[in-house]
Structure formats: C-alpha cells, structure tokens
Amino acid sequence: MVNTRSGASTTPYSKEQEEIVASLLLERKERMEKRELIKQAKMLALLEEQEAKNRQMEEEMEKWTKEQEEKMAAIQAVVEKEEEEEEEEEEEEEEEEEEEEEEEEEEVKKEAALERRRGEASTSKEEEIEKITQEWAAHLELGGDREAELAISQEEREAARRQSEAERDPVRRRAKKEEQQRAWKWRLSQEKVRRPEAAEEAERDLKAVEARMGKIKAETEIATKVETLTQSVESLLIAHRDQMQYLRSQDIKLEAIRTGFKDFARDMMKYLVEQVHLAISKTKEFCIGAIEGAKLAAAKEEELAPPRHKKVKGCKYFSKINLKSGYHQIEVHPNDQYKTTFRTRCLERKWAVKKTVAIANQRGGRRRP
C-alpha cells in the first residue's frame, strides 16, 4: 500500500499489469494510425477522382468550344460561298446575256451568210450541216471553259491572264492556258462534289432556323390570339352595355305606356260608372212613374167596377137576340132562367128576365165573370 499526499491509499501496478497496459496502449495507437492512414488514402482517392473529373470536363469544354468554332467557321464559309456564288451568278448572268447577244448577232450573221450561200451553187447542204455542228461543238467547249473560268475568282483569272501575257512563246502560252483550264475544270468538279455536303449542312441549319421561327410564330400567334380575345371581350362588354341601355329604355317606355293605360282605364271606368248610374237613376224614375200610374189606373178601375158575381155557367138552351148594337148569342142556364146576359161589340150588359134590367159598365169597362 502507498499513501499519497492527499491521504488516499493506492496499490501500484505489478509488472504483468504494466505489460498488459502497455500492450493495450500500443494496440490502440496502431488502430489510430491505421484509421488516419485509411482516411488519408480515401482523401487522396477523392482528390484524384475530382482532378480527373475536372480534367475531363475541361477536355469536353475544349472539344465543345472547338466544335462550335468549327461550326461557326463552316457556316461563315458557307455564307461567304453563297455570297460569292450569288455574285458569280450575277456575273454569269451578265456574261450570259452578253454571250446571248453575241450569239444572236453571230446567228444573224450566219443566217445572212447561209442565205448568201444558198444563192451560190458551189455550197451544199452537207457542208453547211457539218459547219453548224462544228460551231455548236466549239460553242459547247467554250461554254465549259467559260463555266470553269466563272467558277474561279476574278483575282486568279487576272493573275493567270498576266502570266499568259508575260509568256512570249505562243506555244507555251497556249499550253499554259490549257493547263490552267484543266486545273480550273478539276477545281470546278471538286467544288461540285463539295457543294451537296455544304448544301446539306445549310439545309440542316435552315431547318433549325425554321423550327425556331415556327416557335416564334407560334408565340406571336398566341399573342395575336390573346389580343383578339381581349378585343372580342371588350366588344362583348360594349354590346352588353348597349343592350342593357336599350332594355332600360324599353322598360322606361313600357312603364310610361303602363301608367298611361292605367290613367286611360281609370278615366274610362269613371265615365262608364257615371253612365251606368245615370241609366239606373233614369230607369228607377221611369219604373217609379210607371208604378204610380198603374196604381192610379187600378184605383180608378176599382172605383168603377161593379161587385163581382159568380161566373155564369153555360146552359144547354140557347136563344138569339138582335139589338141595335148588333147580333149576339145569349146563353141561359137552366137554374138561372131569371137572368140572362149578352155582350155587344163595345159593352157588356146584364139583364134580368123577370125583373128590371140592370145595366153595368156603361162607361166601357169589361166585367170579368
């Protein structure tokens, strides 16, 4: 046991324990070193991969830039060639026009010469045909040479012309000219072979440009459609507003007509009610007057009328009488033989057969039985 300064007691390690601890520390140290080495190796591998990727990206960018530059150079070359071809075509057209004029003049001269020759007996048709074919062949050769010359630039033609003029020997000059013509023809054939490829590339570029133009046109069409839609919506709003104003004016007119009709109907009903009341009052007055007149007439009739008797029944025995008033029939009942009645045209009379005669209704009144 060993006591420390703080007063705690400890037991020191033995040699075996110290060896075990030392071995454990060594193992831990080796593990840490291995881990650090592995980390460093991984970092190096990642750095190498990153550098390789960066190099690859740089190479791809360089290739892409070169391709783009080549494409732009090719397009510029094609454009320049097209411009040169257009200029050459214009020059060719001018030269062809001049040649056509010259040919027309030559043909006119030839026709004049042929007409002259026809008049001469020495010339024949076969010779004329041979001459014409030779002339046409010469013209074709000249046309091919002319085409080859036109395919070459003006500077090269001027340089070749100067070289040929500098040569004094005519044979060498002619040989140089022929050699130059063959070189130009070969270049023209090579150019004809290259032209389709350039035309294909230009066609591809044109298709791409057309596609872009189609997209731009589609966008412009959409914009125009939107503008037309906005214009149509505005016109519809204006039409709707005009329609609402028209309907409002129609409603106002209908309301005015309705109020006018109401006033007219009110006045008409007032007039009709007044007329009905007037007619009712008049009929009432007329009825009252008629009733009062009837009452007065009834009162007078009641005053003049004699007392009523029972109805005289008919009898089986009849007799006739002739008075001053006229001829009438007299009916006599067997039970009432003491009475007799007869009627005249104007008066109704009653007679008592056995007693005195009683006359009634002398004023014209009619007695009811």
Summarize the structure in words.
By secondary structure, the chain is mainly alpha-helical. The chain has a domain at 20-87. The chain has 4 helices and 6 strands. Strands 1-2 form a two-stranded antiparallel sheet. β1 and β2 form a beta hairpin. The longest helix is centred in the middle third of the chain and has 135 residues, at 170-304. The termini are far apart. Residues 81-106 have a biased composition (Acidic residues). Residues 52-140, 155-176 are annotated as: Disordered.
List the keywords.
369 residues; mainly alpha; 4 helices; 76% helix; disordered C terminus; DNA/RNA_pol_sf; Rev_trsase/Diguanyl_cyclase
End-to-end distance: 183 Å
Number of helices: 4
* Mean of residue pLDDT values: 70
Q: What is the gyration radius calculated from CA atoms?
A: 76 Å
- How many beta strands in the DSSP annotation? 6
H and E string: EEHHHHEEEE
Globally, the shape reads flat
Measured by DSSP, the beta-strand proportion falls in 5-15%
What does the main sheet amount to? 2 strands, antiparallel
Query: Fraction of residues in helices?
Result: over 70%
| Largest sheet strand order | 1-2
In the predicted model, the low-confidence regions spanning at least 5 consecutive residues are: 312-319, 325-329, 337-369
Structural class: mainly alpha
Region (Disordered): 52-140, 155-176
Biased composition (Acidic residues): 81-106
InterPro entries: DNA/RNA_pol_sf, Rev_trsase/Diguanyl_cyclase
Biased composition (Basic and acidic residues): 52-72, 107-133
